[in-house]
Amino acid sequence: MRTVDEHLADILAAVPVVPPLSVALLEARGAVLAEPVEAPVPLPPFDNSAMDGYAVVAADVAAASEADPAVLPVIGDIAAGDPGVSAIRPGLTARIMTGAPMPAGADAVIPVEWTDGGAATVRITRPAPPGHYIRRAGEDVLAGQVVVDAGTRLGATQLGMLAAVGRSHVLVRPRPRVVVLSTGTELREPGSPLAPGEIWDSNSFMLTAAAMEAGAVGFRQETVGDEPEKVRETIEDQLARADAIVTSGGVSMGARDVVKEVFTAEGAGGPVVFGKVAMRPGKPQGFGLLQGTPIFTLPGNPVSAYVSFQVFVRPALRAMQGLPPEPLPTVGAVITEDVKSPAGMRHFMRGRLSYHRGTYSVTPAEGQGSHQLRSLSSADALIVLPEDAEAVPAGSTVDVMRMPS
Ligand SMILES: Nc1nc2c(c(=O)[nH]1)N[C@H]1C(S)=C(S)[C@@H](COP(=O)(O)OP(=O)(O)OC[C@H]3O[C@@H](n4cnc5c(N)ncnc54)[C@H](O)[C@@H]3O)O[C@H]1N2
Ligand code: MOO
């Protein structure tokens, strides 16, 4: 049996990085920047006012007080985007709004609260030093400075930054398109009635959502029964739009394990390797490239499929965008119960994390069977017990992966 680390290393060595393309800014959300973006101009581009108030020569108001205000004629207004007054001389002032360019000759801004708010002349009751309430050109970003590095996943703040330096389009590695397909003759669409022996398909919904949570674009396919030709056709049809394919079911030792049958057959279109990985749940795994497109054939038991996704598919999707293939965020936590773990297997248990006074603790969920979706859906963490652990006493510190929420 191969180890989890060996299987993951093979996957990461094989998955291609999605090619970069230029997209409009809002379409870039969730994509990974493929070029360093520099500011063509400084930010702010010009010295401007931080407050609504009056642009003054600081020396003119140096002696101003409540008892003896400085009284200055107002020569006009300067609004953001409308530099009505471009310069002032000593002894004069101009009303200025937040973000408006400082007029030449002025070296301070007096906020309107320190004045009588006059429009023709203004009474200023407090002094201010030179530079007061002026935001200097380049104080945020210098011209030529890289504002977002290549390799950054673009969220709201990065998109704001890119817009602020004038970019309408950027070169990105887009979110991989992941096609998810459940196989199994027993599966029915939720919302339709069940005949004896049938169950509703849950995996494809869970895995499509997990792909989205991992930063991919998820496309769920309708389930396909255990018909090799239909499975092959459905997957081959999807190759045109998929950057990766994820299947669930049909990969273990049964007489009708359809996914395994299709992709181990001669001429199946690419080498998908099926084997056992030393983990619980998630032992039967398959991975390969179909005409260059990665396909992950995950086991059908719902918990097995989910754990396999987080352990193998999620890091691979990150690698495909040029991101480090990190595992889910992991914390150390004190386990609250004695647990047993199979020797030689990495064991992923469902649990609930809690945090108290600087320490995490984790309680294993009731029902650790790989068919028990209820305990998975009420869990927020996967407890990772290493291959060499067999009995882990309560009070031990264990690694815990936080499930995305
Ligand atoms: N003789 C052996 N039998 C099994 C072995 C083994 O090593 N030797 N491994 C077991 C393990 S571990 C797992 S995991 C499963 C994996 O089986 P398959 O990937 O072939 O999955 P299926 O047989 O199609 O389904 C297993 C189970 O999961 C249910 N299922 C499948 N798809 C869905 C879905 N989309 N939504 C909800 N539930 C689903 C299915 O009805 C079965 O109950 O094999 C063990 N057997
Ligand atoms: O791995 Mo199976 O995935 O243990 O139920």
Strand content: 25-35%
Weakly predicted, low-confidence segments:
none
Compute the separation of the termini in Å.
32 Å
Estimate percent helicity: 10-25%
Radius of gyration: 31 Å
Structure ligands:
ligand LQZAQKY5, molybdate ion
Number of helices: 7
Task: Indicate the overall shape.
Answer: elongated
Write the CATH homologous superfamily of the largest domain: MoaB/Mog-like domain
CATH class division of the largest domain: Alpha Beta
**So, CATH architecture of the largest domain?**
3-Layer(aba) Sandwich
Q: Count structural domains.
A: 4
Description of the structure:
The chain folds into four domains: 4-18 and 175-320, 3-Layer(aba) Sandwich (Molybdenum Cofactor Biosythetic Enzyme, Chain A); 21-43 and 139-173, Molybdopterin biosynthesis moea protein, domain 2, CATH 3.90.105; 48-135, Molybdopterin biosynthesis moeA protein, domain 3; 330-402, MoeA, C-terminal, domain IV (Beta-clip, Beta Barrel). 18% of the residues lie in helices and 30% in strands. It is built from seven helices and 28 strands. The chain has helices at residues 4-14, 156-164, 203-213, 228-238, 258-264, 302-320, 373-377; strands at 21-24, 32-33, 37-38, 48-49, 53-56, 70-78, 93-96, 108-111, 121-124, 134-135, 146-148, 169-173, 177-182, 187-188, 199-200, 217-220, 244-248, 272-276, 279-280, 284-290, 293-298, 330-335, 339-340, 346-356, 359-364, 381-385, 391-392, 397-402. The strands form eight sheets. Strands 16-13-17-21-20-18 form a six-stranded mixed sheet, with helices on both faces. Strands 8-5-7-6-9 form a five-stranded mixed sheet, with no helix packed on it. It has a five-stranded mixed β-barrel with strand order 22-25-24-26-28. Helix 1 (4-14) packs across helix 6 (302-320) and helix 3 packs parallel to helix 6 (302-320). The structure holds ligand LQZAQKY5 and molybdate ion. Molybdate ion (MOO) is lined by residues 280-283, 299, 301, 304, 370. The site of molybdate ion has 8 residues, from loops.
